[in-house]
Amino acid sequence: MTTQIQNLQRMPWNQPSLGEEEIAEVVDTLRSGWLTHGPKATRFESAVRDELGVQDAFAVSSCTAALHLALLAAGIGAGDEVITPSLTFCAAANVLRQVGVRPVFVDVEPATYNLCPEQTAAAITAATKAIVVMHYGGHPCDLIAFRDLADRYGLVLIEDAAHALLARRDGLRAGSVGDLATFSFYANKVITTGEGGMLVGRPSLIERARLLGRHGIDAPVWQRRRSADYEVTVPGLKYVMSDLAAAVGLRQWSKLAAFTARRAEIAAAYTRALSGLPGLATPRVLPGVEHGWFLYSVFIDPEHAPLTRDQVADRLHTEHLIATSQHFRPVHTLQVYAGSADRPLPVTETAAVRQLSLPCYPAMTDQQAERVITAVHELWGRRN
Ligand SMILES: Cc1ncc(COP(=O)(O)O)c(C=O)c1O
């Protein structure tokens, strides 16, 4: 075992794929003398807008910034209730709290771990202003059901599409159905700008978000002739994406389809090899879905598997030098949200102890995917 380990390279859970193209584009930006939000950010916005078929796009400093601007632009604030899953990253709940909103956590569906439309409908009250859905791991939520629900009750629909850049359900692109949608280009996402995000959606809302995201100044710096030639009409924030980040984003964007296809290949290899292991559920892809494959999630049922999720993670790490991750620690279990769940969240809480994210990213080789498969089989006591 020791000699075997000595010959193994540690395998990260995730790794960005960056090439000479990104480096050249950044150098070009540095040489251009224009570093902040400018021509490259604008090109990046156009590329996203055209590809997703959305009406407008605003490149920002993170998905969290996009979520914050989405709430401000839609006029969501103190006294409002917003329905959102707890099985997600804390960003949406944090910005809700920042604008004085009480997040109402609703459970997810066991098939996809996305927010459940029926339970969402049951949680709507006179104070509900919006629904923030999240496309778990890259599998879109039921976009048609949530659009209908939002229209029926006059609610704002916001898609946190941080995981779902090239995903589709029932012919609809994730990020194109909400009044607003947000994407993340954080370092571990399907494409990255290091830190970065994109807010897309209805033009009137994006226009408001642009204003709020550049200090409330009524004209972007790079369109102004004189530096004092502006007015501040609202107390804004500074959330724009720099052209340095956009330079990376533009080149990453042109690789998105290839990256997603490679992720899908690795996911298919995992599902072929791991389906049928006792107590291990591979991710379900519902009919009519094109998965974005940000995550490859398995769910380990301790009653039927030889090991618990934590034991699998520990042994992959120590015996096979394979890193994994977990998505997510439910938001309502985080210290600052303690006691904030006012309804049972059984699927969320079960997922929290069973879910494990295996390495799945374009920089992985077939041999590395095979190494993960072999390691999992070994832990289940199977020989290949
Ligand atoms: C579902 C979800 N939303 C939002 C975010 C926040 O993204 P960012 O780091 O770009 O602000 C993340 C980050 O991992 C996420 O997983």
Estimate the strand proportion: 5-15%
From the spread of the alpha carbons, the general shape counts as globular
Domains, number? 2
Structural class: alpha/beta
Largest sheet: 7 strands, mixed
Count of DSSP strands:
13
Description:
- The chain is α/β, with parallel strands linked by helices and 384 residues long.
- It folds into 2 domains: 2-15 and 256-379, Aspartate Aminotransferase, domain 1, CATH 3.90.1150; 20-253, Type I PLP-dependent aspartate aminotransferase-like (Major domain) (Aspartate Aminotransferase, domain 2, 3-Layer(aba) Sandwich), CATH 3.40.640.
- It is built from 13 helices and 13 strands.
- The strands form 3 sheets. It has a 7-stranded mixed β-sheet with strand order 1-9-8-5-4-2-3, sandwiched between helices. It has a 3-stranded antiparallel β-sheet with strand order 7-6-11, with no helix packed on it.
- A hairpin with a 2-residue loop joins β6 and β7 (172-173).
- α3 (39-52) packs parallel to α9 (243-253), α10 (256-274) runs parallel beside α13 and α11 crosses α13 (366-379).
- The protein is globular and about 70 Å long.
- The mean pLDDT is 96.
- The structure holds pyridoxal-5'-phosphate (PLP).
- Keywords: Aminotransferase, Pyridoxal phosphate, Transferase.
- Pfam families: DegT_DnrJ_EryC1.
